[in-house]
Amino acid sequence: MGKPNLKAELVSVGTELLLGEIVDTNAAHMSQRLAEIGVDVHFRHTVGDNLGRIVSVLEPALSRSDAVLICGGLGPTQDDLTRESIAQVTGRPLRPDAAAQQHLREFFARRGYTATPNNLKQATVPEGGRLLDNTCGTAPGVLVELEGAGGSPGSVLIAVPGPPPEMREMMRREVIPYLAGRQGGPPIAVHTRVLRLADIGESSLVAEIDDIIREQTDPTIAPYASPGEVKLRLATKSASDDEAARRLDAMEARLRERIGRHIYGVDDETMEVAAGAALRAAGATVAVAESCTGGLVASRITDVPGSSDYFLGSVVAYANEIKQRVLGVPAETLEAHGAVSEETALAMATGVRGLYGADYAVATTGIAGPGGGGDGKPVGLVYLAVADAEGAVCLRQNWPGTREQFKRRVSQYALNLLRKRVLGIEVEG
Amino acid sequence: MGKPNLKAELVSVGTELLLGEIVDTNAAHMSQRLAEIGVDVHFRHTVGDNLGRIVSVLEPALSRSDAVLICGGLGPTQDDLTRESIAQVTGRPLRPDAAAQQHLREFFARRGYTATPNNLKQATVPEGGRLLDNTCGTAPGVLVELEGAGGSPGSVLIAVPGPPPEMREMMRREVIPYLAGRQGGPPIAVHTRVLRLADIGESSLVAEIDDIIREQTDPTIAPYASPGEVKLRLATKSASDDEAARRLDAMEARLRERIGRHIYGVDDETMEVAAGAALRAAGATVAVAESCTGGLVASRITDVPGSSDYFLGSVVAYANEIKQRVLGVPAETLEAHGAVSEETALAMATGVRGLYGADYAVATTGIAGPGGGGDGKPVGLVYLAVADAEGAVCLRQNWPGTREQFKRRVSQYALNLLRKRVLGIEVEG
User: Does the ipTM exceed 0.90?
Assistant: First the structure.
C-alpha cells in the first residue's frame, strides 16, 4: 500500500494575491516542503475570495491529482470561504467540532477575550473530515479523505491557514508527515543543499565555476543573489537519503575546491548563525555599536536562539552626541573626520568593546540615504570596524541602493567581518 | 467597440516555480499593473515546463477569459515551451519572423556572439500573431488575437518573458497600452486604501463592524491580520480618481466613527512611520532600551528616512550586567524581581531616557523563547515600558509564538505605546 510520488496541486486563496498586493511566498514554501518528500506539484492556482471560483478550481484539481492543498481563507470573516468550498466540492456539510470549539474558547480566554460566533465558525469541519491543530493561531486546518472509484483510495483535500508562521508550522507538524505516510515506501524526493557565499558577486561566481555549471546534470546547480549574499543551490532526486547525500557531498567538495574560501554556511546557516557559531566555539562574547544599521545587526544576532550565551548587547548611536558621550568617540575625531569615517568607526568599536566588556566588537557608520549625502561622502558610503584584544581594523565600502537594501547589506557585511575575525580569517578591504 | 473591465488569467510557466525554488514576484507585479487599468484577474496558474500541462491550463482559460497572459518559457532552450503551447492551443503553426531574426542576429553580433539555431527559435511566431519587442533581452513577446463566435472579438493570448526586468518593461511598453486600448474608454481601475489598526484582534474588529461588512458592496472591505497588526482593505472600482477617492473617503469616515480609536495609519504608514510622525510633530526625541527585541525596535524606527531628526539611539542590553552597568537598573531590582519584570522594564526606560537625554523612552524585556521560560515566567511573557518627563508606565503581555513572531509583535506594541504616549492617548493595560 501507499502510493509513491503523489501528484499534488496547490490552491492559494485570497483576492489580495490576485491584486498583486502581496507576493505568494507561502506557495513557494509549500512547494519546497512537498518536493523534499517527493510529492510532485504539477499545478498551482490562485483564486479570489469567491465561492464559485474556488470550487471551479478545486473540481478539476481533485479529478486529476492525489492531493489538493489549499492555503488561506480559513479565517473568521465572511471573506473566508475555504471551509464552505470544501463542503460544496465534496458534498459534505460542515459540522461543529466540540474539541476545536473548546480549544478556541480557551485560546481566547487565556488572552482575556471571549470567542465570538465568527471565531467558532473556524471550529467546523466537513463531515467525515478532521481538523488539524494550529499551534500558533486560531484557525485549525482541514483534512478530508475522499473515496476513489470502487472504494480505492481517492484524493485528499487539505487546507492550511494563510498566515505564514501558522502555515509553516502546520505543514511541518501535520501535513508533511501525513502525506509522507500516505505515499508509503521511500519516495523519490528532491534533495537540495544551499551553499551560502560571501565576498563574491553572482557574475564573478558564475565566471569562476562556468565549466562546472555547463557540465551539470546531477546534481543541478543554480545561483541566486540577494543583497549582500549569493547562494548556490544543488539539487538531486533520489529515493535514498544516503545516495542523495553522497551526490551532494561530491558536488559540494568539487565546488569547495574552487570557491571554498567564499562559502560561509550551508542551508539555514545564515550569517548571524555562522557568526554566532564562531563565537560559541571560541567561548567569546560580542558587543555591537551601530549607527547606519540602526539596530539591525543586533536584531539579526538575537534572531538566533541561544544568542544570549555570547551576545552582550549593542549601542545604537544615531546622534553624534551619543557616539561621544556613551561610546566615548572623541569630540575631535567627530569634528575632524565626521561621523562617517574610519576614525569614528574604529572609536565606536573599541568604545563599545570597553563599555560592555566584550571580547569582540563590531561597529557600523554610514549614509543610508535617501538624504544625508554630500561633502564627498555619497549615499551608500559606509565604514565597518571590528575590534578585539589584538586591536581593530576598518573597511570602507560603497553600496548605493534603497535604505532597506543598504541596511541589510551592511549588517551582512558586519556579521561577516565579525565571523572572519573570530575565525582568524584575514580581512580584505 | 472596446470591452470595459476585461477578465484576465495569468499563467506562470516554469518548473523552478513549482519546486518553490523561486518566489513568483512576476505574477504579483503583473497583477498590480492589470488592476491599475481595471483588468480583473480572476485566476492565476503556475505550471511546469511540460507541453501537455501548459496546454491543459490554457484551454479552459481561453474559454472563460478575455485575456490570457503567460509569463516565462520563451527562452532558447528545449525547456522553453510557451511558443509551442500557444501554437498547439490556437492551432496556428509557428513561422519564422524575418525582422525578429535579423534583430536577434544583430543583438548577438553586438556582443561578439553568433546567434545559434536555438536563439533563432525565439524569432518564430504563431500564424496570424505578432511579436512584441524585448528592449532588454533576447526573447520577444508573443500576441495572438483569437476570433470569437460569429466573428466577434474573441480572447487574446499574450506571452511575456520571465526575467523580471524584461517582463516589466514589456508590460509597460506593450501589454498594458494594448489591453487599455482593447478595453476602450477610460479604464475602470481598482483603487484601494488600507487602514492599519492596533490594540484590536481580527475577530473583535470583525464583530465590531459586522453590519458594515455585511452591507458592503462598494467599496468592498476585507480584514487581514499579521503579527501585532490588523488591516482593513477598502477597494472600489472607478474610471475617475476623484470619484474613487470620494467613495473611499466616505467609507473611511464611516469606519472611523466606529473604530477610529484603533486606526493608527493609512496605506504605507507603518507603526514606525506613525510613531515617528508623532515625535516629529511634538518636536520630541526618543531613546530605546531593548532586551527581548534585541535591536528590532531601533531598527524599525531607523527604517524611516529622516528618523535621525528624532531618534537618538538605543541600548540593547541582553546581558543583565549591561542592564545594570549601562542602563543603571539597580542590582536589587534584578535580584528581587528578575530581568523580566515590571520593575526592570521601568528602570530600563527611565535609565535610557536619562543616559541619552531623550524626551521619551521605551523599553522591552521578555522571554522570546524557545528556551528561557520557567519560574512562573513562560515563554512569550513580556513587559513594555514607556517613560517621559511625567513618569513611566508599564504593560505586561503574553504572546506565545515563534521567536520571529514574538520579536515582531513586541516591537509593534512598543512603537504603539510610544506613539500613544506622545499623542497623549491613554494606555490601557
Answer: no
